[in-house]
Amino acid sequence: MNHSAASTFPAVPDKTATSSPRPTSSSVPTRPNEQHGRRLTAAFEALEGFPALAESQTRLVAALDADPVDPSAIVAALETDLGLGLGVLRVANRLDTTSAGRVSSIAAAIEVVTPPSLRVLAERTRTVDYFDRAGSWGREADAHRRHVAAVQTAIHRIGAILGDVDVETLSTAALLHDVGKLVLLHAHAGYPEKVLPRDATPEERIVAERRELGVDHALVGGVLVRRWGLPRELARLVERHHADDVDRDVATLRLADLIAHHSHGDEVSPQALMRVARSMGIDASQLRALLYDQAVPAQRRARSAAPCPLSGREMEVLRRLAAGRVYKQIAGELGLSTSTVRTHLHNIYGKLGAVDRAQAVLIAVERGWL
After folding, report:
1. Which of 5, 43, 68, 369 has its CA 20 to 30 A from that of 302?
2. pTM above 0.85, yes or no
């Protein structure tokens, strides 16, 4: 879909204009709930100006200038940076009118937003630098990115164990999962120092937020994601990322968040870690490996510019093929007949242009589909 930069990025409305004079606090008394609501609304509006990191902007422009353009480098520049990543998600969801589920990942967003429009986004987004963080949100932009990157690393590692994790959508949910904290930071002068217990676990922080503020950052974040016009699935993941939920995607995001907090040296409950891991089928030895390996940078899967041509069932067959399963094992695990598995493999080879299983797996790995 081709769109000019001008149509993609409408002018920012003048926030100084008002339709009618606002009554003063002396003329109209306000109740505590009204004041709380106004503070949250003001914080929502303030977050519209959340900056990108200058290094993220530099890397995005370099990726756009590359010949050929590398989609993996574009995604890498966007998906840990809230200022840029949120911008491209919002633009993509405004432009895309064909997807029933809407655009729920950065990887999908760059298939909708053209490179010229991405360049306009990069140029128009305010930036901050670690060494020059004057003004609003400077320190928070850097801290937010570091935690997001750690959560995304854990998601990739969990995905490697489970094999059926929507890494792209969950990585984008990780980008957004703590935006509620930024809202509370702006709305309440004493947050988090005067609200949260010192050395509290993530579970204890949520309880303290609800007790002291009447709301928690996960709920506030879900409201904000909906306000931004992003897909309901992203809002649901953000809203429930601290919930005791049997849903696989929610549990994956929650476990990744706990692992990231552990890697930062934050207080984390071992019981909570084990409970969430077991609910997903991850045993104690696998959890120990996840915690241990988090300190080492993960080798992330490459992204492809082209969407995968395989169906969901064909991908399930190919994953098992890559794991070394034979036809009979694949059939048993998926509840299919051996002849049906052969039919799926025939279709896989045809769609990928492969002559055998080894080539099919190699092509899928190289293009980021496995």
Report:
1. 5
2. no
How many Cβ atoms are within 10 Å of 285's Cβ, its own excluded?
8
Closest CA to 256 of 167, 182, 181, 145: 167
The residue ranges of DSSP E strands in the chain, in sequence order, are 52-53, 127-128
**Alpha carbon distance 228, 236 (integer Å):** 14
Residue with tokens 């987004």: 125
Q: Per-residue pLDDT tens for 287-333?
A: 999 999 998 765 555 555 567 888 888 888 888 887 777 788 888 88
DSSP string covering 140-205: HHHHHHHHHHHHHHHHHHHHHHHS---HHHHHHHHHHTTHHHHHHHHH-TTTTTTTSPTT--HHHH
C-alpha closest to that of 276 among 123, 154, 145, 142: 154
Query: 219 in helix, strand or coil?
Result: helix
Instruction: Kindly report the backbone phi and psi dihedral angles of residue 313, in degrees, each rounded to the nearest multiple of 5, phi listed first.
Output: -65, -40
User: In whole angstroms, what is the distance from residue 264 CA to residue 241 CA?
Assistant: 18
CB 139 within 8 A of CB 222: no
Residues 6+ apart with CB under 8 A from 242: 202, 203, 206, 216, 218, 254, 257
* Of 356, 355, 346, 352, nearest in space to 364 by CA: 352
103 touches 92 (CB < 8 A): yes
Which single residue is written with the structure tokens 């993220």?
56
Using omega within 30 degrees of 0 as the cis cutoff, is the peptide bond preceding 68 cis? yes
